[in-house]
Each structure stands twice: as structure tokens, then as C-alpha cells.
Design brief:
Elements: E1 2-6, E2 12-16, E3 27-36, E4 46-54, E5 59-64, H1 68-74, H2 80-95, H3 108-116, E6 123-125, E7 129-133, H4 136-147
Antiparallel strand pairs: 1-2, 3-4, 3-6, 3-7, 4-5
Length: 149
Amino acid sequence: MSDRYINVAGRITERHITRAGQGGDRDVYEYVLLRVVPRVERGECVNAGVLLYCRAQAYVGALTHLDETKLLALDPRADVAGVRAALRAVEGVCTGGDAAGQAAHDDAGRRFRWLVAPRSTVVQPGPVHTGLTADPVAETRRLLDLLVK
């Protein structure tokens, strides 16, 4: 079903609404942006990854991309190696197995919820957003390209 609405630029556009049972072959997913906040007291951040969870497919995955130039523009003394290690740790928890540490035996949903819990650290999750996808792996890549790179 499509609804017409006026966007912020005053143009009439189409918005697609999917109601329960009308998703076709697509599944609901949740995602967050991983943000690097080099100086927490300033609140400035650089998007550095995407964390995506699709319950229907028992998928949790993360892709990261750190733009060192942007990070160092916010804080020339930023610990780039430490940030990269933290981002790799998130990817490891998503992968599961030995790389996930204590979360190795948790299901995908539990690992996602643990990773998106608010925290005051250099690498932080943003707010949770939702969408529909038939391929969560491809969607993770698409969101990384769209929102991070």
C-alpha cells in the first residue's frame, strides 16, 4: 500500500507502508550505528560501523569502517589502535564462537541486546532503528555504505 505525503521540501512523494503479514519474503531487522566518541565530554562522534540483528534469520552481524582522518580531526590524540580493537571486538561478539568471549554461547538476540546497551565509552551504539530485508548480510553492507563510508 502506498500513501502520499508532503516531505519537508514541500514535494509530494510516495511512502510505502507494510502492514503485518504483507512483508512478502522480507523479515524485520533492527540496526544501530556504531559511533566513535573520542572525547565523551564534547559529544562529537564519527560513525564507524553498523550492527544489524534479524531475529527471523537468527542473524547478528557488524561491519566497521574507521575513517582515521575524521577521528583525528575531532581529537588529534585519539587512540586509533584502541578504537580499532574495540570495533573488532564488536565484530567478534557478533560472529560468536571463541571470538565472542563470554557471549559465545548466547543466542543472536541476546548478543545484539548486550552490544546495543547504552554506555559511556569511546565506541558507543546509537539508537535502534528498524527495517525489512530479505538478506540481512547484504543489508548490513548497504547500511555501512550509506551511513558510514
